[in-house]
Amino acid sequence: DAGVIQSPRHEVTEMGQEVTLRCKPISGHDYLFWYRQTMMRGLELLIYFNNNVPIDDSGMPEDRFSAKMPNASFSTLKIQPSEPRDSAVYFCASSSGPKYNEQFFGPGTRLTVL
Amino acid sequence: GQQVMQIPQYQHVQEGEDFTTYCNSSTTLSNIQWYKQRPGGHPVFLIQLVKSGEVKKQKRLTFQFGEAKKNSSLHITATQTTDVGTYFCAGPGTGKLIFGQGTTLQVKP
Question: Measured between CB atoms, does A105 come within 8 Å of chain B?
Answer without folding.
Answer: yes
